[in-house]
Amino acid sequence: MYNATSPQCSDLSSPSYVNFTLSILILLGILISYLPQHHRIIVRRSSEGISPYFVLLGTTSGTCAFANILTLPASQRDLGCCKELSGFACAAGLLGIAQVGVQWVCFTVILFLFLLFFPSATPLTPPSKPTSQPSLRTAIAVFLTCILHLILVFIVSVFIIYRVPSHLALWANALGIMGTCLAAIQFLPQIYTTWKLQAVESLSIPMMCIQTPGSFVWVGSLAARFGWEGWSTWGIYLVTGVLQGCLLAMGITFELRELRKRKAQGEAPEENGVAGEDGDERTRLLGNER
């Protein structure tokens, strides 16, 4: 166990107020950036247009990222130092972990909303004709897979931390590589789905407008905190930032095209993400509208 006499603990004992403020702003930015997506799904009462594989890859990569930063030797040192540091110094030293944790929680909320408001027009049994909408069976399978993955990662991480701590760095890097690989392809299913629909539907453009530039700021913050030793942590967000930028450009293009079309037809623009009477074509999975 690490103590306050180590160089690592000495560095944490005098946190920079500038870095602390920046880290807090990043943490709040991560939280705020996901709220438009949560709001859009709830207001539309539908998760139509969101790829189940995007949700699957995003949730599992987020789980890997959170487990990665928790099991990094640097994070374990920071956690050990908290026993000897003041409350402020400890909080400042753990803000990097808190940022990744908030991101994981926010994306997990999308997982629950995706299933809760899944369009119920698609049946559990395979349809007789091909459909562009994923089946309810697929949505449930995605949800259960994410939960099972979380349980397995938690069990293995706890076992390694308490039984074979010498393998902690290896496990952390394995989680980082796994998370990076999942993140690298996370946006591909959503890019395909959005391109196929030629519309963003329940996908939130404001969320992507905040997250795309925010990803690169976050990468810089994590890289400055963990250095090259933590490449497996900040590399995930570098990859996702680039791919999300591509999805954002596509979404803005489709929204501008739809806006021009509505203006040409003299229709009222979509309000609060609900497209008038047609918005009731599909209802949410659980319950009726109140």
Automatic annotation (TrEMBL):
Membrane spanning residue stretches: 16-34, 54-73, 85-118, 139-162, 168-188, 234-254
Feature: compositional bias, Basic and acidic residues: 281-290
Subcellular location: Membrane
InterPro entries recorded: LAAT-1 (IPR051415), PQ-loop_rpt (IPR006603)
Disordered as annotated region, ranges: 264-290
GO cellular component: membrane
Membrane topology: Multi-pass membrane protein
Keywords, comma-separated and alphabetical: Membrane, Transmembrane, Transmembrane helix
Protein name: PQ loop repeat protein
Organism: Cladonia borealis
